[in-house]
Structure formats: C-alpha cells, structure tokens
Amino acid sequence: MKLLMTGAFNCTAEQKLNIEKLGCEVMFQQMENEPLSEEMYTADIVICNGLFLYNDLDKFKNLKFVQLTSAGLDRVPVEKMNEKGIVLHNARGVYSTPMAEWVLTGVLTLYKNTNAFYSNQQNHKWIKDRNVKELSGSTICIVGCGSVGTECAKLFKPFSNEMIAVDIVKPKSDLFDNYYTINNVTEAVKNADVVILTLPLTDETRNMFNKELLSQFKNDAILVNISRGAVVNEVDLIDALKNGKIDGAVLDVFNTEPLDENSELWEMENVIITPHNSFVSQKNNERLFNLVYNNLNTYMKEAEK
C-alpha cells in the first residue's frame, strides 16, 4: 500500500524501514501546507497532523487509513472521514506525561513565585517573599479526563484533598473523588483552587470559559489551559485577570498562535506563557512510533483478510 508521511512525524531511517517491512511504499512530504504531487494523492495511508487543513480530503481517492501525530481531532474532517469509512487514529497517550509535568511545573511556579526569585537572583537581590502558597490540600478540577487529564490527576493527587473530574462520561480512574458532567461545569469550578483544561475543541466547547463561567471561579483560583486556545475567551480571561476575578493563569495554547506580541497577557506577572510547548519530550518519538507501528500493523493484517 502507498503511505504518505509528512514532516509532522519525525521518523528515523530505522523506523521508516520497519514501516516499509509491513508492506508500505513510503512517500514523504515535509511541509503539510505545500502542494502535493499527483502521486501523493493516490495514498492508501496517511500519517500527518494538519495535512487536511490545506488539502481536500476528496482528492484522496484511495485513502483508507489516517494516523494523526496529534491527540486532538479538531484539525481533520472527522465526519467526512467517517462517511467515507476511513479508519482514523489519533496520538492518544503519546504526550500525556510531558503535558502533565508541564501543568504541575506551571502551577508550582505561580504558587511559589519562582519567576520573581529567579529575577532577583539575576540581579543579586536577597528578597524574601512571605506570600508564597502551598499546593498541598488544594482542590483540583480537571475538565476533560482523557489520557492527559488522567495523567494530570496522577501527578496532582498526592498534593490535594480533592480531585474533581468534569467530562461527558464518568472516568473509570479512582484518582478522582468527585464527578460532574460537562453540563454542570459551573458547579465543578466553584470550589476549585486550580482548574485544568484538557478538553477537546468542539462547537460546544468553543469559548466555554467566558466571562460568565470565569465569574464563578474563586478569586484565588488558577486557570491552566493545555487543550486549545479557543476553549477560553481570551478577552474575558484578560479582564478576569486584570480585575482580580481569578488569581492567575498558566497558558500553553492561544486563540491565535503565535500569541500577538501586543497581547496584554505578555506583561501580566500572574500569567505564565509558553509557545504550545507542553507536549515536547525526548521520549515522544519512541512512543509515537510504537503507536503508529502497532496501529498500522493491526490495520494491514485486517486488510489482508
């Protein structure tokens, strides 16, 4: 079968050889937003991230299997793929560990005010801070309890008295103490010290965290977003931060990326900004390859029957 692989999958020569041994003729396209050759449109299998943002799915007449390098499905036409009977896999679980570690790091950075200490170190200043906070005993609310949300719960559980889950279905994990449906998210966030967003971007979740919902947060609460920027109304978030409606934010995703250099978020001392970097880890390639290989192997065996 013909397999189109994009630069979204940083495949080593050895990994490519192992994929070819499954019976795949591999074609490669580095940039997903650049034109494809006619031959590439004959692919039976595609491994990509945002390829279908720039290329019409209908042009792929032979496409039967798509493997995404991302966990999110918001960059592919899921409904159309289902209609065409195309097998679709995401990268579930590949990035959960580094993302959860990033969340914990960000929250502790705000709680312990480490940015200020680092700045003082650079300026050789000995200044104590009597207002640093303790994470132990906090209530953590995780909105979206898939693999990333569950990994966050695993890291935060030792610090907290209560772990709150918010999702469309009740998580099976015993890490969570309480559960709210996504329709009752307002009640879930009211008593939370930290609210962590790992939910997917859909028509229903777009701008979910707006002025109305943010007004239900505790004034000393922290919002963490590692899902998609559009889940949060950025204008309303800035207003809530400026007016003390919430205490701080840890943000790795934004409505527009890169974040506009004129955004007020850059200058806020109670905000931590990273450039959609929370998923990065030196161990991702091995995890992603194992996932891709196993999914391909299963598909190829089924196709032979």
- CATH class of the largest domain equals Alpha Beta
> How far do the termini sit from each other?
15 Å
Question: CATH topology of the largest domain, anyone?
Answer: Rossmann fold
CATH architecture assignment name of the largest domain: 3-Layer(aba) Sandwich
Strand content: 15-25%
Total number of helical segments?
9
Q: If you average the pLDDT, what whole number results?
A: 97
Sheet with the most strands? 7 strands, parallel
CATH superfamily of the largest domain: NAD(P)-binding Rossmann-like Domain
Draw up the topology in text:
Blueprint: E1 2-6, H1 13-20, E2 25-29, E3 45-48, E4 65-68, H2 78-84, E5 87-89, H3 96-112, H4 114-122, E6 138-143, H5 147-156, E7 160-167, E8 178-181, H6 185-189, E9 194-197, H7 211-214, E10 222-225, H8 234-242, E11 248-251, E12 271-273, H9 284-304
What brief labels describe this structure?
18% strand, seven-stranded parallel β-sheet, 30% helix, 305 residues, five-stranded parallel β-sheet, alpha/beta, Rossmann fold, 12 strands
